[in-house]
């Protein structure tokens, strides 16, 4: 069993991602992983950007933590989170994209589309996200250019 990379997970979703968020909170708690629910707290229509920013702020203030974000597609909420320096939110759909997001991109946020993935695949992706180490080496140089390479 590989160790979990992050000491705590901040999780957020809009109304479209709410049900998947609840499912993944259960998964995290069953696996004894510390999780903080940043909302939304029901299916009242909400703005995915607000939830993306909220989780990004939390991670920035808690080094070594990670995040999980969901909206209908995972697109809008990852766009918002990626506006923050040091946040690398990866929109993943399957095993390969999730493995690469960690191993190559050192993603600290997993973004999922609740209308794209079923719950079973979402749990598989989350498990991979939590346990796959960053490979470092040549990837470190590339990742450093994301925040500072302009
Ligand atoms: C909400 O209908 C939907 O637009 C939102 O969840 C997300 O997919 C946006 O990127």
What does this structure look like?
This protein is of the alpha/beta class. The chain contains six helices and five strands. Strands 2-1-3-5-4 form a five-stranded parallel beta sheet, sandwiched between helices. Helix 4 packs parallel to helix 5 (119-131). The longest helix has 13 residues, at 18-30. The structure holds D-ribose. D-ribose is lined by residues 14, 16, 48, 71-73, 75-76.
| Estimated structural class | alpha/beta
> Which ligands occur here?
D-ribose
Characterize the largest beta sheet: strand count, sense, and whether it forms a barrel: 5 strands, parallel
Order of helices and strands: EHEHEHEHEHH
Give the helix tally. 6
Instruction: Please give the oligomerization state of what you see.
Output: single chain
β-strand percent reads 5-15%
Portion in helices:
40-55%
Strand order of the largest sheet: 2-1-3-5-4
Termini Cα gap: 39 Å
Tell me the Rg in angstroms.
14 Å
Could you name the ranges where pLDDT drops below 50 across 5 or more consecutive residues? none
Query: Quick one: how many beta strands?
Result: 5
What key phrases describe this protein's structure?
150 residues, 6 helices, 5 strands, binds D-ribose, 15% strand, alpha/beta, five-stranded parallel sheet
List the helices and strands and how they pair.
Layout: E1 9-13, H1 18-30, E2 35-37, H2 48-60, E3 66-71, H3 75-81, E4 89-91, H4 95-103, E5 109-113, H5 119-131, H6 138-148
Parallel strand pairs: 1-2, 1-3, 3-5, 4-5
């Amino acid at each position: 069993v590989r160790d979990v990379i992050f000491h705590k997970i901040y999780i957020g979703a809009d109304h479209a991602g709410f049900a998947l968020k609840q499912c993944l909170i259960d998964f995290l708690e069953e696996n004894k992983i510390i999780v903080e629910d940043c909302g939304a707290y029901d299916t009242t229509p909400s703005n995915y950007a607000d939830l993306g920013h909220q989780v990004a702020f939390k991670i920035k203030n808690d080094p070594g933590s990670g995040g999980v974000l969901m909206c209908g597609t995972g697109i809008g909420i990852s766009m918002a989170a990626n506006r923050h320096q040091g946040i690398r939110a990866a929109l993943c759909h399957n095993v390969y994209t999730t493995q690469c997001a960690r191993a190559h991109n050192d993603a600290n946020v997993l973004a999922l589309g609740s209308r794209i993935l079923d719950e079973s695949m979402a749990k598989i992706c989350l498990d991979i996200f939590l346990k796959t180490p960053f490979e470092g080496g040549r990837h470190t140089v590339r990742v450093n250019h994301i925040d500072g390479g302009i």
